[in-house]
Amino acid sequence: MALHENSVGATDEWYTPPEVFEALQCEFDMDVAHPGCNIVDWVPAKTVLSHDSLEQPWDGFVWMNPPFGGRNGLVPWLQKFIKHGDGIALVPDRTSAPWWQNSAPYMDACLFWRGKLKFLRPNGSRGNSPAQGTTLFALGVKGKLALRAAAAKGAGFYIENQKILNNLKI
Fold first, then answer.
1. Domain total for the chain?
2. What whole-number distance in Å separates Cα of residue 73 and Cα of residue 69?
3. Is the separation of the CB atoms in 129 and 116 below 8 Å?
4. Which of these, 30, 35, 28, lies nearest to 14 by C-alpha position?
5. Is there a contact between 160 and 104 (Cβ–Cβ < 8 Å)?
6. CATH number at residue 76
7. Which of 40, 51, 122, 136 could anchor a disulfide with 111, C-beta 3.0 to 4.6 Å?
């Protein structure tokens, strides 16, 4: 779930559309920010966390579409994702935001989704085109391979992080 569009008086829950998972063609061990099985049933995850996810242990290859919330609301989620080190995280394309700039160097790969995802509302309808695009961050081999495969199918622009470059002084 995530805030992808301003929804005055409505909801801040927007669910990942199934085409993202179709493009990734992988199964996750855990969805760490799941809205609940009675709400979303298309996330290919063996187990889900739908409450107190930041306080619970994460296991295996994770899918993370966290609640975006207010300013810097993603920071604790990204910190835990980086510490966990294995999975795919969906975040907005806010490449100039400090949280994005601070997180991206830790990622093994990024996929900038082609076009703007039309996220699903709790009632199952599609939202309008959001204000920003979507980035998928990957940590670990499975995540890199899934993003690379999605890019090969036209899902977006793939960048693999050559972390050795981070240590160079220019």
1. 1
2. 5
3. yes
4. 35
5. no
6. 3.40.50
7. 136
Please enumerate, as own/partner, the contacts of 31-40 that have beta carbons within 8 Å and a separation of 24 or more: 31/62, 31/63, 31/64, 32/58, 32/62, 32/63, 32/64, 32/66, 32/87, 33/1, 33/64, 33/65, 33/66, 33/67, 33/77, 35/1, 35/122, 39/15, 39/122, 40/15
The rounded distance, in Å, linking the Cα atoms of 47 and 166 is 35
Q: Is residue 11 part of a domain?
A: no
Asked if residue 57 belongs to a domain, the reply is yes
**Which phi and psi angles does 7 have, rounded to 5°?**
-135, 75
Task: Provide the residue range defining the domain that includes 125.
Answer: 18-167
Task: From 46, 23, 22, 4, select the one nearest 149 (Cα to Cα).
Answer: 23
What are the structure tokens assigned to 90, written together?
A: 């969906």
| 1 belongs to a structural domain | no
Mean pLDDT by 10-residue block, N- to C-terminus, for the chain (170 residues)?
41 80 96 78 88 94 87 89 97 92 95 90 76 92 97 96 58
Residue type, 35: P
Whether this model's pTM surpasses 0.70? yes
CA 70 to CA 83: how far, in whole Å?
Answer: 22
Domain membership of residue 26 (yes or no) is yes
